Amino acid sequence: MKTLVIVAHPNLVDSGTQKFLKTSLAKMDSVTWHVLNEGHFDVTAEQDLLQENDRIIFQFPLYWYSAPAILKQWEDEVLTRNFVYGTGHALAKKELGIVVSTGDRQKGFVAGGEEQFTLSELLRPYQALAHKGEMTYLPPFPIFQFAYLSEQAKQRLLVSYQQYITNSDFESFHGQELWFEQQLSKKISEVQGSSNSQKTAQILGVIQDNRENLEELGWTLSMIKDDEDE
Amino acid sequence: MKTLVIVAHPNLVDSGTQKFLKTSLAKMDSVTWHVLNEGHFDVTAEQDLLQENDRIIFQFPLYWYSAPAILKQWEDEVLTRNFVYGTGHALAKKELGIVVSTGDRQKGFVAGGEEQFTLSELLRPYQALAHKGEMTYLPPFPIFQFAYLSEQAKQRLLVSYQQYITNSDFESFHGQELWFEQQLSKKISEVQGSSNSQKTAQILGVIQDNRENLEELGWTLSMIKDDEDE
Which UniProt keywords are listed (chains A, B) (predicted)? Predict the structure, then answer.
């Protein structure tokens, strides 16, 4: 699976969040980090880039409950009617994900809260775009008040984010386990021969055993469920 | 009441809808027609303009379920945190209205429809902005498929639009009647002495009689209601 991360941020160099996210993806294969810059877009080049990828990510800080203007300009110029739904559906079956950061508190995004609406509601225009283009809309990936996160919370965020970008099945526990196994196998081949290599291999062994046990449990449960349904 | 119409349209000269709307307001007092042009904004001048007006209108064609990028850029630059909700609430108690045109069919904007969401849902980011700034959010004024409207439908649209922009109480029937009376009085003073003047005065008389009759009916109904509640 190939992923295109479209980064829309007017002050990218000053953004700690974006720096962190970029570093998180440093060793990830099949990821294209694509920063939008002021000015007009090369429509054909942008459309080609979209077609080469399977998962498209809009990544931005929330400004007035939406993306910064630069992403909208990109949408207005690049996503021509004919490309998205007119003569063909060039984006059909691709995935659309939203990585959105905000300095506002998570608890404000609720009816009666400070922001009055949930992020799911505020991001409807992107969901509608995905629908029009026959894309699969992924659950948005929100980052609230990054600057206040503990180191531990940032590490958890890093792993979730890596999966949101590169794991084709990031929503199921099974998919997450498989992804971890892949990452560890890669790690082992990288550090071959060192003492870390052995430790990592042991961890991988434990995770694989766990997964096999869980898969067996899953089978047993589904058999019990089948019996009950009869 | 003073109204500021902020027009965001990348191809204004080619837009029949915008031409029609502009003409509709030609003889309206207290309306400022403010077109956003490409480039950066004079933040102080824009903020002053906002403060001089009571009703703020965002007027635009719907591009990808939102305003064209130029309006978002204006929002991102002009609506600074301190201006809207930081140190003060410069827009508090002002009204925010949305005039949005689309070539898509009205019936598509519904769950299960072609666009999947209602316009009310898609415009949530503006509603959230109004909430944050302690503004009153007006029911949006949508224009569907303008090019296909009959002449009669366009005339009805013209009058509704004029009221959306200039009538402080456009939602109640009583407010609409008062507005019509004002418009006719203005018309009469303009055409003083001509044969049209007499006809217009007669129409005004009929409307005024009607309103008085309706007001009496309203009183009677509210007395009946009071009796029932006791």
Answer: Oxidoreductase
Residue A229: which domain range? 172-230
CA distance A200 to chain B (A): 47
User: Cα torsion for B42, A66, B98, A72, to the nearest 10°?
Assistant: 70
Q: Which of B72, B129, B131 sits opposite A69 (nearest CB)?
A: B72
pLDDT tens digits along B19-68: 999 999 998 889 999 999 988 999 999 999 999 999 999 999 999 999 99
For the ranges A9-13, A66-70, A75-79, B178-182, which has the lowest average pLDDT?
B178-182
Residue of chain A nearest B84, judged by CA positions? A64
Q: Do A122 and B122 touch (CB under 8 A)?
A: no
Q: What pLDDT is attached to residue B95?
A: 98
Name, in order, each residue with C-beta under 8 angstroms of A89's C-beta and a sequence gap of 6 or more.
Answer: A133, A134
User: What CATH number does residue B20 fall under?
Assistant: 3.40.50.360
User: For residue range B142-160, what is the model confidence (pLDDT) as tens digits?
Assistant: 999 999 999 999 999 999 9
ipTM of the complex: 0.89
B193 pLDDT exceeds 80?
no
DSSP string, B101-161: EESS-GGGSSTTSSS-S-HHHHTHHHHHHHHHTTPEEPPPEEEE-GGG--HHHHHHHHHHH
Helix (H, G, I), strand (E, B) or coil at B99: strand
Residue B178 CA to residue B21 CA, distance in Å, equals: 22
Range 8-47 of A in CB contact (< 8 A) with B:
10
> Coil, strand or helix: which one is B73?
helix
In this structure, the answer to whether residues A102 and A165 fall within a common structural domain is: yes
Q: Do B176 and B160 share a structural domain?
A: no
A67 part of contact set with chain B, CB < 8 Å: yes
- pLDDT tens-digit series, residues B84-118: 998 889 999 999 999 999 999 999 999 999 999 99
Which of B147, B168, B189 corresponds to the end of one domain?
B168
| Domain-ending residue, one of B122, B146, B168 | B168
